[in-house]
Design brief:
InterPro entries: GDSL (IPR001087), SGNH_hydro_sf (IPR036514). The chain is an alpha/beta fold and 395 residues long. The chain has a single domain, classed as SGNH hydrolase (Rossmann fold), CATH 3.40.50.1110. It has ten helices and six strands. The strands form two sheets. The chain has a four-stranded parallel β-sheet, sandwiched between helices. A two-stranded antiparallel sheet has the order 2-3.
Length: 395
């Protein structure tokens, strides 16, 4: 069987840019910087976070109920190495704690049940401004895991929910937007399925190698166009639903390279560039959509690439093997969870629901599962983001 080569970012991006207009010196999207964001320290009273599983601070805790009825206590609930106290905190919580603030989930639930702002019933104040949910996408409500009970409220709706509660954003809000990874997974999954069909058709003589290359190019272009659309939509929400509704201190994160994860490294080398390029295309059009806007962009692509290339610099001794043991999690959940998701991984020593791999550490191993950070991984991420916010002059 002949191998169909994948096409690099430069070739497909050229095709995408051609659609923007010609000329001897075509405009290059994503090169105009943001402008006008605050440069002074903020008097912050709330951390408002929009995103997906990386920013999820416990939206799906009921799925990990020890009693199995959705009620507390829970043995998991976040996409990391869960535990007691500061164990199992994600970057949003860490960052808020550094600022002396409390942030709690805007909505908690699973399946047909959900509760908006559960912290209100606990007299924790109006702190329910952590809207990130595992599986969520930029606009499409049918995120990853939706069919099996995940809420996957998209960021467009997350922002809408915040505005419905508060009416607008405040000068004292630190607003963090980190979304797009699930759009990458959806687009990559579609490409991979199409590529497999093309590979089979070429191998069985149904199409020529030239036709296979043409179809593969079309499949890659379609996936990248999907990422361009998601990025363009996200930039639009930032402009019209955050900045236009009072947002002042607004930081938007680019996507990192998913290849720099255990999942990414498990893929055949021939398709890893496709995965990388989906994030790059998203980042390019996100920057384009935020050109001259009063926001700050935190570029996670080089931050996480450096942490993967130089793990010891960040205190990691292992960044290739997930700390959570898929077989243990399957046993703990009675066979309900077979993918080793860190949502169901608890790192507390000595408890029967501990899902860590033998010898693993929640602090010095970087990844909890194939794509999500451990407690230590989130700590490193929050420190990097904190440094960026200080560099902006906001902290």
């Amino acid at each position: 069987m002949k191998t169909i080569r994948v096409l690099g970012l430069s070739l497909i991006t050229a095709a995408l840019l051609a659609a923007c207009g010609g000329g001897d010196e075509p405009y290059e999207p994503g090169t105009t910087p943001t402008a006008g964001a605050p440069t002074t320290k903020g008097n912050f009273s709330a951390v408002v976070s929009f995103g997906d599983s990386l920013s999820d601070i416990g939206a799906y805790a009921p799925a990990t109920s020890l009693s199995g009825d959705g009620q507390a206590p829970y043995f998991g609930g976040k996409f990391t190495t869960n535990g007691n106290g500061t164990a199992g905190t994600v970057w949003v919580e860490n960052l808020a704690a550094k600022m002396g603030l409390l942030v709690t989930p805007g909505e908690v639930g699973f399946g047909a049940q959900s509760v908006k702002c559960p912290a209100a019933a606990l007299n924790l104040g109006n702190t329910c401004t952590g809207y990130g949910q595992g599986g969520s996408r930029v606009t499409d409500p049918n995120g990853i895991g939706k069919s099996t009970g995940a809420l996957t409220v998209p960021v467009s709706k997350q922002i809408e929910n915040h505005l419905a509660r508060f009416g607008s954003f405040k000068d004292t809000d630190l607003i963090l937007v980190y979304i797009g990874s699930n759009d990458v997974f959806i687009q990559f999954g579609g490409f991979a399925a199409k590529a497999a069909q093309i590979q089979t058709a070429a191998a069985t003589g149904q199409i020529s190698q030239d036709e296979a290359q043409r179809q593969l190019f079309a499949a890659q272009t379609a996936a990248q166009n999907g990422m361009k659309q998601a990025a363009t939509e996200l930039a639009g929400y930032v402009r019209t639903q955050i900045l236009a509704k009072g947002g002042k201190y607004v930081a938007v994160m680019t996507l990192s390279d998913t290849v720099d994860t255990p999942y990414g490294k498990s893929l055949p080398p021939s398709v890893q560039p496709v995965l990388t390029d989906l994030s790059r295309v998203f980042n390019l059009w996100l920057r384009e959509g935020l050109s001259n806007q009063p926001v700050q962009i935190i570029d996670t692509f080089p931050i996480l690439k450096d942490s993967y290339a130089n793990p010891a610099k960040y205190g990691f001794v292992n960044n290739t093997v997930p700390a959570c043991d898929g077989a243990k999690i399957q046993a703990i959940t009675g066979g309900r969870v077979t993918d080793g998701s860190s949502l169901f991984c608890n790192g507390t020593a000595g408890v029967p629901f501990n899902g860590l791999r033998t010898g693993a550490s929640v602090d010095s191993w970087a990844f909890a599962d194939g794509v999500h950070p451990t407690t230590g991984g989130h700590r490193a991420l929050s420190e990097a983001f904190h440094a960026q916010l200080k560099a902006f002059g906001w902290l």
